[in-house]
Structure formats: C-alpha cells, structure tokens
Amino acid sequence: MATNLYVTARDTGSSDNGLFKSTDGGTTWKEISSGFINNTVMSLTIDPVTPTTLYAGTYSGVLKSTDGGANWISLNKGLPTLYISSLAIDPQNPSRVYAGTDRSGAWVWSLTDSETILTFNKNPSVLGEAVSFTATVSPATATGSIVFKDGETILGTATLASGSATFTTSSLAVGDHTITATYLGDGNDEISTSEPLTQTVTLRTYTLTYTAAPDGTISGEAVQQVAEGGSGAAVMAVPNPGYRFVNWSDGSTANPRTDANVTADISVTASFEPGDSITFSGFFPPVKMDRVNSAKAGQIVAMKWRLVDENGVGVSDPNDFAGLFSTSCGDPSDTVREVAAGGSGLQYLGDGYWQFNWKTSRSYAGTCRDAYINYERDAAVKASPPATFQFK
C-alpha cells in the first residue's frame, strides 16, 4: 500500500522552497505548492479524518486542499494577510483549524456546515433517455463544484451557480443506479454529500396492434406490449367464409405473423378479398366413389359431400350449390337435374358438409347413371367427380 509523505522546504535567500509530496514512501517527490507566494510553506497539517484534506500556512495566510495537494483554495475570510507559522486541527472537530502567526496572535477558523440535496427530473427512465440530476447546496452562498456519482463511479462534475448545479446523462445502463451528489466545499463551507437516490432505467416498451378488415378476424393477442429488441407473440389473420387473406397493411404476407427485434410501435391491418375457388372433398357414405353403388330405382339416396374454400374452411353458403345432376353412364348428353324427396331439400350439416336426399326416378331401373353436383363461386360453375349407380 502506497504511503503519502509531505515535506516543507524553506531556505532563506534561495528559490528552493515549497511543499513536496511523495506517494511511494519517499522514493520520489513532486512539488505541490506551485503558485504560492514566494513558493514558501511555513507549516502543514493533515485532516485526521480525511487524509486528502491538507492545510498549509504560508506568508499570506492559510490555504486548503481537498485532493491531496492537487488544487488549493484560500481560507482567509476574516483572517488578515499574515505570516502563518503554525497550524493545528481540532481533534474533536476537524472542520476547526487554529493558526499561529508571527507576532499577531492565534486565530481560529471553522467551516460552515453545508447540506446537499439531490433531485432528478424523471424516474424511472428508459434506456438512452436523458436524465437530469440537480444538487442544491445550502447555504446558497456556497461556491465550488459538485461531483455526481453512480455508486463509486464518477458520472461527471458541475459548477455551483446560485446554490445549485445540474448534470445530465443519457448513458445509464438498464437497471437500478445509486446516485449521489457531493459538494466539494470552498474556503467557508464544509463538504457534504446528499442522501442517495435510486434511478431506475428500463428498456423502452413498444405497442404492437393487429386489426382485421371487416371480412375477417384476428386470432391471437391483438394488442401486445414488447420491450425494445424483443419479439411479439404470433397472430393470425382469419378470413370469413368465402374470403381469403391478402396481406397486412405494411405489405407483409406472413400469416401467421410474428414481429421480432421490435424497435418501434407497430400497427397493421389484415386485408381480405372474396375467395375465387371451392374444392369438392368427395361424396361420403353411404355413397362410395371408388366403386359402383347399387340402388333400387325410386328409392331415396342420401347424397353427402363437403365443400371447402381456398383456406380449407368449410363452405356454408347455400348459394354455392348449383344442383344435383345425373347422366347415363357414357352418355353425358342425357343429363337430368335431380330433385329432393318431399320437402327435405338441401341440408347444411356444418363445417362445409351438405346433404341432399335424392329421390331417384323409377325409370332408372336397369340403367347405370353417374350422379354429381354442380357448385359455383363468382359465376364460375364446376362439376364434382361423379358417383356411379347401378339401378335395379
């Protein structure tokens, strides 16, 4: 551990005078009295509580340093310009200093207690946002500097003006910071440190907003709060039956959509348009499509099928059904639009499934017929693959 030593050198009639300091136990020395009158120090005393605080008696009064001799201020308020031959610090009150003079008696000097109060303009703050810390010192006549610290790290310094000083920074990292302000004192006012304040810095938060045009809905969390650089949760634009998803208002066609590395608010709307295709998923039992179905002419055959749109959603609009038809096997010119039994008509079973109770004609006995449905969307009529029936 380095040992600080101080020596006063005085040689009448010589310029080799001054106050010298060693930080290595006396191996090397550096003068720290440059600028003193005659460069002469008659006496020196060290604060027993704060060893970096020094008092020097000179030809022209008392000087004080709070940084181990790097900088000095005059303490001559109320003290005539005198030759100070000796100094002593009150061991019970280190802010009181006694000065002995050459034939002018002894003098006592003491600092006025000061108080430093720290305030901030915003808490919490977000990363990169400027925060200002203001230190107010009493008495208001105090002069000098304020050191602002984050824990033990010096953030910066500011000079008092009318009893206050402000330091502004935007470099605080995310987390809690213990901020203090220390008044360094002057020739009349004591050093003081504020009570610590906790400044909390958070990541900036952005809002993600997803909406749908009238022909669809949003599946997932439509409004999300995301920290800067984070990712939102997936959302999906779901078209209403008969419509299909086109894109988001920012041009993206991702569906589902997940916004990552968010650095700004996002507000987008999903757009849709009428679907232009319907898919026939086949006839279902009791009708089979991979073989010839046997039926008795004149009986009712339950024709069941499913239609889905381009999104795989079951078609529920009866206007998309254009009728059940049958033709003689191998003779498509013999086309008959078939009818339902009684008043049963077309029945919707849910999720795109339909049923039509076909009242077969007795005249079909002994014939083979292909049955199919016609379905349409936007006036485009399509015929389903047929189911073949052999009538008895």
Taking Cα atoms only, what radius of gyration do you get, to the nearest Å?
A: 47 Å
- The gross shape turns out to be rod-shaped
What is the number of helices?
Answer: 0
The average pLDDT score comes to: 88
Give a summary of the structure in a few sentences.
This protein has 392 residues and is mainly beta.
How would you portray this structure in words?
The chain is an all-beta fold. It folds into four domains: 106 residues; 88 residues, Immunoglobulins (Immunoglobulin-like); 70 residues, no CATH class; 114 residues, Immunoglobulins (Immunoglobulin-like, Sandwich), CATH 2.60.40.10. Helices cover 0% and strands 51% of the residues. It is built from no helices and 35 strands. Strands 12, 14, 15, 17, 18 and 19 form a six-stranded mixed beta sheet that branches. Strands 27, 29, 30, 33, 34 and 35 form a six-stranded mixed beta sheet that branches. It is rod-shaped, with a radius of gyration of 47 Å. It starts with a strand and ends with a strand. The mean pLDDT is 88.
